[in-house]
Here is the input.
Amino acid sequence: MSQQETLSETRPEALRWSTANCTISRTMEILGDKWTFHVLREVFVGLRRFEDIRTRTEIPRQVLTDRLARLIDRGLLRRVPYRLPGQRERYEYRLTQAGLDLYPVMVALVQWGDEHLPLDDGPPLIARHRGCGEEVTVTMHCAAGHEPEPREVAFTPGPSAQPRTID
Here is the structure.
């Protein structure tokens, strides 16, 4: 066996695959700044109107306009018209199914923050199941129903994985 073969055998499997079509990179193109998560947080807790979101987050008006437009363009939010008596038509922002599918991600971020960036007085919010009142936590499950620990999970190449070309 040549030295080149020996080196490639000891290299981590992940180095053999390109990150050109990385799911995390594509997701972070949409979600990768603090204001986007602030906007989503507000919609998740029930705020739907521009001024309500802006007031609570203190996000600059143009930044909020940009983030809402991006979330609509990417299919996470939809605009729904409403009109208060005597006023012009305005819009509420509602989660689409893709937006709702981010809910466990948001709960996982809160869970991680409460664990690793705790406040002295405890968490400011606790996610609870409306049906029974118990605290909600996010865990990993495999298709067989096991709850693996992080070190028991491996990422393997999927159908769209591309071999990495080494220059």
In short: Residues 36 and 67 are 6 Å apart (CA to CA).
